[in-house]
Amino acid sequence: MITVEQAGQIIQSQTRDFGVEEVFYENSLQRVLAETLFADRDLPPFNRATVDGIALHFEDYKNGLRSFKIKATQAAGEIPVAIDARGACVELMTGAALDESVDTVIRYEDLDLSDGSATIKDVEVKRSQNIHFRGKDKKQYDKMAGAGEVISPALIGLAASIGKTRLQVKKLPRVAILSTGDEMVPPHTVPTAFQLRRSNGVTLKAVLESYRIDAEVFHLNDDSALIESVLSRCLDAYDVLLMSGGVSMGKFDYVPQVLEGLGVVQLFHKIKQRPGKPFWFGARDGRQLVFAFPGNPVSVWMCLHRYFIPWLEASLEIRSRAPEYAVLQNDIYFPHSLQFFVQVKLEMNDRGMLTALAAETNGSGDFSNLVYTDAFMELPLEKNEFKKGEVYPVWRYR
Amino acid sequence: MITVEQAGQIIQSQTRDFGVEEVFYENSLQRVLAETLFADRDLPPFNRATVDGIALHFEDYKNGLRSFKIKATQAAGEIPVAIDARGACVELMTGAALDESVDTVIRYEDLDLSDGSATIKDVEVKRSQNIHFRGKDKKQYDKMAGAGEVISPALIGLAASIGKTRLQVKKLPRVAILSTGDEMVPPHTVPTAFQLRRSNGVTLKAVLESYRIDAEVFHLNDDSALIESVLSRCLDAYDVLLMSGGVSMGKFDYVPQVLEGLGVVQLFHKIKQRPGKPFWFGARDGRQLVFAFPGNPVSVWMCLHRYFIPWLEASLEIRSRAPEYAVLQNDIYFPHSLQFFVQVKLEMNDRGMLTALAAETNGSGDFSNLVYTDAFMELPLEKNEFKKGEVYPVWRYR
To answer: Half-sphere exposure of residue B192, counting CA atoms within 13 Å on the CB side?
Structure first.
């Protein structure tokens, strides 16, 4: 059996490039930017008033002038008004562009206005005040955002501001989600006493939605001919198959043998971990990938966040995120030679420290806790006892 | 001028209840649950084998028996098979329900199978091993999720598992987003040297998408008759108006007076903060609310996350989140009697401590940084100097 680290390396060696496509910027939220965005001009593009008031020539003020004749009123967006005479000023609004003949802006609060003149109150005035200078934030052709950014609302705003209304983004993989198991019935039906309702498919689909992947969901009963026929068609039509169930040692666990019969080469089966030990992973022709998770909902959830999501983010070339760590809040005893992923509730204390309270410590994997917990804490394989106050990595899932 | 804290209190005193509606669970992602979900039966609903292997009566093993005749093979979902004779066992698959006549499960790895019999290898067997007992995770009618949860993929899976295919969720407010300013031109056009492209509308709309609010975006030129006509219609058709621009002291800042003419009562105008000082907030007839932010994109972003989002989450009765804190990584000098919200990049160190590196320390508010920063750090009003190592609250925006 391989370790979690080895499994992670094998999976990361199988990243795929799905190419690039162009989308309208308003439809690009949560897609992955595949180009560099540059400033189309200086930012701000002109010397810009940051308050409402008047603009004047500082030398006039320095020479003792305090009252200025208003030559014109200039709104934002208008062609800048020049002053030509000593003692003149321009009344202007926040966002207005300054002409070269003015170099200082005084806000209304510091002025008395009457009869077309503005008189400066007894306040200190500094040269260049209340001006956001051309190019202070960015110069034309400066880089504003790079490939690998997940497109956020702020990035959409940035694209709008530089007129980049079509964006190159990474294409998404076509994903099929396939759950298995005769005992799993549709959610709208009433199960017999020995059946359960299906939940893995909709859960996986919902997680992929946050990457804008619209996955198809299938369910397969434990019939090897049916499984073979559906898997064969899915391997032709999709880039990635996410499966749940059918990978243990049971007599009706047909998935690995059917996949291998269809040319999917096993890259590993079983990892020294709990939950999720029977995870099977394979590839066909260096192209299609099959992540066949065990059927337990907690196992599916753990394998998805520990293996599939990092694979997806690497394939989409999403800028890598720093790992997160938290301080364990309870003692845990886990007497198995498996790497234990424990569900934890994260909280931040008022000193900026992230703490992790384990929801359960016996490894049984109650899936109802997934609604209230925030992450799996990855406890090291080499130890069986974990103490309050120790710090370990966490894999956040909400 | 009021403080940030006072502004927050006034806004939080204006929460609204938009009611409840029912949605299909597969369409409920990111909506807010408005009912309690209960277990429809015990979880697990039966004593469940957690491995593939055989089930037997532990007393037989205790009495020295090691070889057992396989009476039948039982898949998950099938009616449990009883054993009636001493020395019999049932071969069963992970997920199968145990009959009352068996109480211990032994996995294939610990068995030799031949001629319809299973012989236990030299391993220790404990009573009740490899069984997930009925009701261990939840009892029938136990609470599984409460009102106020933002519906996550895990919660959708939980709803599926209990057959709750229609969910009561909070209705969403109807939101209109209105930007103003003659100098703001559409993103697909080429601005003159003194114009800028519009970005606030699409940015706000994208943020609201994560709450599944589909807001309408409008732009108003600085024409008080036009502004009055559009605002009047919007006040009738929407619950909330989010505006940007037109609230400063400029001659073309018509927004506050037009709103007041339309019966929107000002609840405050201007807050001791940077950015976002000229924020105007009002209500009509205790129903419609107007958040009129200043036009600068950084001001809009800050006011949105510091005021509107907390208002929205309170109105939707989203379970409140603990505030977050981070350790400042640089010295900041801010010589104004305003509360300074500085853009920071958050990182977690390997001791679980959240650190905040300020992207800029002069308060100018370069909006291009919003793409690379993660939060605003709220620095206290009473101080002007902030030192590396000090801990302050952060308002995360990505």
So the answer is: 12
Provide the pLDDT for residue A250.
80
What residues have CB less than 8 Å from B225, skipping those under 6 apart? none
Sorted by sequence, the CB contacts under 8 Å of residue A383 that are 6+ apart come out as none
Judged by DSSP in three states, B154 sits in: helix
Contacts of A95 in chain B (CB under 8 A): 181, 183, 196, 295
Q: How far apart are CA B353 and CA A324, in angstroms?
A: 9
Whole-angstrom Cα distance, residue B153 to residue B173?
23
Which 256-285 residues of chain B touch chain A by CB within 8 A?
none
Maximum alpha-carbon separation in chain A? 97
Residues of A in contact with B199 (CB under 8 A): 157-158, 160-161
Does B97 touch chain A if contact means CB atoms closer than 8 Å? Answer: yes
Q: How far apart are CA B358 and CA B263, in angstroms?
A: 41
Do residues B62 and B46 make contact, with C-beta atoms less than 8 angstroms apart? no
Nearest residue to B61 via CA among B80, B83, B93: B83
Q: How far apart are the first and last CA of chain A?
A: 30
- Mean pLDDT (whole number) for B184-192: 96
**Measured between CB atoms, which of B162, B347, B367 is closest to A322?**
B347
Q: In the A/B pair of chains, how many CB contacts fall below 8 A?
A: 301
Query: What is the three-class DSSP state of B341?
Result: strand
Q: What is the enclosing helix (H) or strand (E) of A313?
A: helix A309-315
Calpha distance B14→B285 (Å, rounded): 11
User: Looking at the partner chain, which of A78, A152, A192 has a beta carbon nearest the beta carbon of B398?
Assistant: A152
Query: Quick check: B331 contacting A, CB < 8 Å?
Result: no
Beta-carbon separation of A352 and B391 below 8 A? yes
Chain B CB contacts of A378 under 8 Å are none
Residues B325, A351: C-beta atoms closer than 8 Å: yes
A166: β partners: A24
- What residue ranges define each of the domains in chain A, with the CATH number in brackets? 4-18+173-315 (3.40.980.10), 22-42+138-170 (3.90.105.10), 48-132 (2.170.190.11), 324-396 (2.40.340.10)
User: How far apart (Å, rounded) are the C-alpha atoms in residues A192 and B383?
Assistant: 66
A375 is written with which tokens? 């992450």
Decide if B375 contacts B344 (C-beta within 8 A): yes
Taking contacts as CB-CB distances below 8 angstroms, the residues of chain A near B155 are 371
Name the nearest CA neighbour of B75 among A3, A254, A305, A366. A254
Give B347-376 pLDDT, tens digit per residue: 999 899 999 999 975 555 678 899 999 999
Question: Rg of chain A over CA atoms, in angstroms?
Answer: 31
Mean pLDDT of chain A: 95
Nearest to A137 among B163, B368, B371 (CB): B368
Task: Indicate whether A365 pLDDT > 70.
Answer: no
Ramachandran quadrant class, A71 (left: phi over 0; alpha: psi -120 to 50; beta: rest):
alpha
**Res. B114: pLDDT tops 80:** yes
CA-based nearest distance B132→chain A, Å? 8
With left for phi above 0 and alpha for psi between -120 and 50, is residue B104 left, alpha or beta? beta
B289 pLDDT higher than 80: yes
CB contact under 8 A, A325 and B144: no
Q: Could you give the 3-state DSSP secondary structure of residue B175?
A: strand
Give the whole-angstrom CA distance, residue A227 versus residue B115. Answer: 29
Q: Which pLDDT belongs to residue B165? A: 98
Is the CB of residue B187 less than 8 Å away from at least one CB of chain A? yes
Contact A52 B301 (CB under 8 A): no
A229, B65, B364, B393, B396 from B341: Cα distances, Å: 59, 74, 11, 10, 12
CA A263 to chain centre: 34
Q: Are strands B131-132 and B88-92 parallel, antiparallel or unpaired?
A: unpaired
